[in-house]
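For reproducibility, we list the full input for the adenosine-5'-diphosphate complex.
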Amino acid sequence: MAVASSKPGGKSAASPALDGVPAATAGRLRSLGIHRWSDLLLHLPLRYEDETRLSDLDHLEPDQPVHLEVVVDAHEVTYRPRKALRVLVHCGRRPLSLRFLNFYPSQLRQFEAGQLLRVSGELRMGFAGLEMVHPRYRVVEPGTALASTLTPIYPTTAGLAQPTLRKLAQQALKRAEPLAETLPARVRDALHLMPLADCLRLLHQPPAGVALGTLEDHSHPAWQRLKFEELLAQQLSMRQHRQERRALVAPALDGAGRLTAALLQALPFALTHAQQRVLNEIRADLAQRHPMQRLLQGDVGSGKTIVAALACAQAIDHGHQAVLIAPTEILAEQHFQKIAALLTPLGIRTAWVTGSQKRRARTEALQALADGSAQLAIGTHALLEDPVLFARLGVVVIDEQHRFGVEQRLALRRKSERAGTGQPHQLMMSATPIPRTLSMSFFADLDVSVIDELPPGRVPIITKLVDVARRTQLIERVRTLCASGEQAYWVCPLVEESEALELQPAIEACAELQAACPELKVGLVHGRLPPAEKAAVMQAFTRNELQLLVATTVIEVGVDVPNATMMVIEHAERMGLAQLHQLRGRVGRGGKQGFCVLLFNRPLSETARQRLKVIYESTDGFVIAREDLRLRGPGEFLGARQSGAPMLRFADLDEDIELLELARDWADRLLRESPVEAQLHLDRWLGSRADYLRA
Ligand code: ADP
Ligand code: MG
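The corresponding predicted structure, in tokenized form, follows.
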């Protein structure tokens, strides 16, 4: 097929950037994120097939695909157990058979006796001797030369065949511009990088005899170079983003005032050193004329909320408004209760905004925010919706930031742009500690503060792993605990929060526990409960009117009931590490010994076993996060932060820490010394996708 020629009928090149590629093909390429010739070159093979040599049937390497030249002896179509084509062939003196389950009648002609074929695929010992099922094959003439390079296999999509991709890659390799260097010579020399053109040629068409292992494990210098390029682009982009932010205008909220002082006075405790330190960092940011973008990290229970409230107070002290957004209604409600209780006596009006509130209440809240009579707003992402306008928004706090998406943050920014008060300062909070490699890469555009100390008097939680076979004894334990005046959570996991069916286990557990412990008040809370009921149940639990709360994972984030000392998690083997850590953080908050019981069902998969081991052995959020990154990759941490943005395609944050450090150092230098080249490099790597990184 001539890939470069236009279709008859005149509708041709749809993509000016991929000139000459037929519209349909260009469309399929776009769905792979390929818009330009340079994208095509960065679309690297997943693996390779070696058709540069023929395998030796007498010296086969185990589990390796073979490439054989065979002669057809006969073929037959069988009908039982289902229609299949069997081609009997020999290779040297060894007979073997090829089996095809799907085939076209026209294919049969290719299997006349005496025909020479090259076949590749897996060879196995079948019922009737050596066989290959669905091998790739090619009809050849005697003496046909072997391939001179390894055959690349690309990631692809429906309707885009490997040969098409191969031809396109070859075309791209013949063009000059996608191969042009964007890295200045001094960088290439300093790091002994292979020329880019050589790298790309090697990766798309590895010469026979290349160390295939180093291509596959990405340790080959060609791979190292591409990884470095990618990491450099990411670092440049993050740094640029930071610089752009510095050029924006935000209200300078310099120094704490009356409200902040009064709030500190009203607290029933003193801030920990760590809280005080991060508060100082935040204050220094708020005093600047450009918007703060700070990530406040602190393990569950480290006391982030009060720090956020103090940041809000500083905005209010300067005549601005503040908003605190939480990802779930339960959490938002709890923040509202606590913060309003502190601030209302100090003369501050706090507006409560969620998607589920009554229209009257909502209209009132929105009015108060728009005319400035409410200084603080607390709520869910309903606060991001269109009709919500602020008079003078100064500070935005986003709790559990990884639960929010890029789109939502963009919405917030647009909102304040329209209000004409400049950008608000942003404080993002997260209880999921971000491992160093991630904070150096995906979060490099943010400033990070860490609360690395828990409030005094916390007793470390005891974690137990319990086989579900001992559930009855466990229920007895819970009963005794609740009888002594303490409270417990009983968590049932949801696979799909939205599926009614999935609620069944929680509903059943609730009935079962109530029956087993008739003297206790047992409550049930889950995501499908109407918000008012949800809030009522949570309040009853907070007030110890319910002793045992059966919950789906809606209580995962942020809920704070100090008298709850025990948590049972059913099917803990199904849950992710971050989730387990968050859940466990709900207990042991009030200075009493907390227990977390992880009930598990057998059989345990290997990952489940590893996860349970990690959570059992460690309560340190950083250790858990690092293990989580290792077990699952970065997606979980990024949440929706970078959705749609290029995840790292080539570099691996677990392995490429040294390259990452190099990239970070060089990004700084390049932006200073060679901004034009830096931009070229960014354009190549990020191209049209760069916008997503701006959120
Ligand atoms: P998280 O960081 O998980 O959001 P919270 O802000 O909910 O933690 O705080 C957890 C609990 O610790 C709350 O009950 C809060 O009132 C309490 N707390 C916060 N700071 C301190 C402190 N400095 N001393 C004692 N208790 C504190
Ligand atoms: Mg919190």
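The chain has 23 helices and 22 strands. Residues 31 and 157 are 8 Å apart (CA to CA). Both points were considered when choosing residues for closer inspection.
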